[in-house]
Amino acid sequence: MTGREIPDEYLAGYDKILAEAADTGRRLTRDELETRRTLGEQAAEAGHTLRALVSAYLSATREHWPARSADTATGTDRVLAAVEHAVDALAEGYERAQRLAVRQEVADRREFVDDLLHGRSDLGRLAQRAERFGLLLSHAHAVAVAEGDGTYDDTHPVTRRVDQAVSARYGNRSILIATKDGRLVCIAPGDQADVLTHFAKQAHAATDGGRVAIGRPQPGAGGIVHSYEEALTALDLALRMGIDEPLLRAADLLVFPVLARDRQAMADLVRSTLGPLQNARGGAVPLLDTLTAYFDSGCVSAEAARRLSLSVRALTYRLERIHKLTGSNPADPMHRYTLQTAVIGARLLDWPSQAF
């Protein structure tokens, strides 16, 4: 062992290289260079630092310096050139091992995230792998998903920016930030809602106004999948329902999956309630948009007219036309619930663009 605690096996043949370089001035052969690279890789894999490895080689250089080379400048140059080539090959091998280790770490993390968010793999093994990435699957977790105009992977500048912002504020709090299908994903303990809110704020800014959805806290590995799917559903609902909010919470949107659960019943309601609107001049879409604006504005005619860029008189005419065609009066509380539920169903089912 050297004074730097590097085993002698990593210095095998080095004294011979120095002696021959001093005698003949030859460069290291291809095999000798590859041997140093291999030794550098092995040192990295064994956990030795590059600094310690280079230090050991410099110590060995002093120890095995060929005495006759000290008599001439030429001999000294020959030895130093050999040292330079040997250390350079060592460093190259060491860095190669480091790059391979990083790539393997990235691949392992990617595989873990994919398995976790799809509910694949044995739960026991998944729990063991989760601890390596700072997650305790015995606890409840919630998942936030952010999407923007672009697609993001684990090395994207947006991903790194959000990760750094969250880590700077919360440090190591069993938080995992990754990407899936081009979206940013944050997994955090279920009792730390502030983490996901901060992630949402950072992701919204980093993606230039992207939208973020947060699933409900759920226990276990299966709970992470459930919360992730809730967040995805919330993003899809926002798109279909025309919801412009930058932050969506699955807990606030539970009524929509309930309404959509019986697709056939919802289709029947839309067809029987709103179907007559297709007989109107211009089709059903303008009147359906009128109902949407009317209900979204809390049934306030002036606000609905403003949203539609209509006069209140024109809006009133449209509402009367809807009443005449459907037999349901939007201004009548008895009829309003049925009409509003049918309008929600139409948006969920993309009617009348999609016939059923």
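Above is the first protein from milestone M3; the second protein from the same milestone is given next.
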Amino acid sequence: MTVVTVGVHIVDVLARPVESIPAGQDTHLLEQIRITAAGAAAGTAVDLAKLGLEVASAGAIGDDELGDFLLMIMARHGVDVGGIVRRPGQQTAASILPIRPDGGRPSFHVPGANLVLAPQDLDHERIRGARVLHLGGMDVTWGLHDPGFFTLLDEARAAGTVVTMDLLSNMPDLMQGARVFLPHIDYLLPNEEQALMMSGAADAQEAAVKLLAEGPKGVLVTLGGEGSLVATASGITRVPALDVPVVDTTGCGDAYCAGFIAGLARGRDVLGSARLGTAVAARVAGGLGSDAGLDGVDLSAL
């Protein structure tokens, strides 16, 4: 496999535009409702598949109808779902996202089976054989905070695998806990809020420098409409966002990760990969859901 994603798998139910929750049992008519495969592992995997990469995903879901849907939609998009385990009695993680007219996305969320993913659920040989391994949501997959898993990451990197990591939550305690991964990864891709919580820094640039000192080769902090900040041993560079009409910001971070990973897998340097991540995120922001705007996309044109 070119890319393996490990971590959080979620079913998203999205509706837009939502200006308010109806009172009582009133009904508001909307323009669009979608249901998608999402989460820092599943959403990134679908985006990578749509970008033309060979990708497998690993995680934990329930034995419910939501899990059936998640496997079906990921496979339909071309993701190898053989590494996703089903846990009897657990619910598949799911979110309901009422998207505001400005693209903002409050959420209602059930974490579900993501919380019980463990190292023994993973195909270690597939991970060691990946060209890129993406860890999605290590702040909430507590079972992977395990010395044996860190050893596996080190073995994969020693064999030539590039390891990237994204986060899911905005909870300070979970951000601090995820720091244990930093000596075992190559690139960290948090958003600004996560980077500040993880580092204790006053601004994104200071946060990137502090996090870089803890082990990664690069720290890429996404800044929403301000683009992203890329920190490596060579220095710090700001990559501007593209000026596009925003429909929905759901999954823009996953899309940025997918574009960045696709760039690395296709031989681009770190900055070139960050620019590709920016372009992919801009396409996703123009539609509803974490994979919007990526059907038939030509990477060479981005």
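Note on the second protein: The chain has nine helices and 13 strands.
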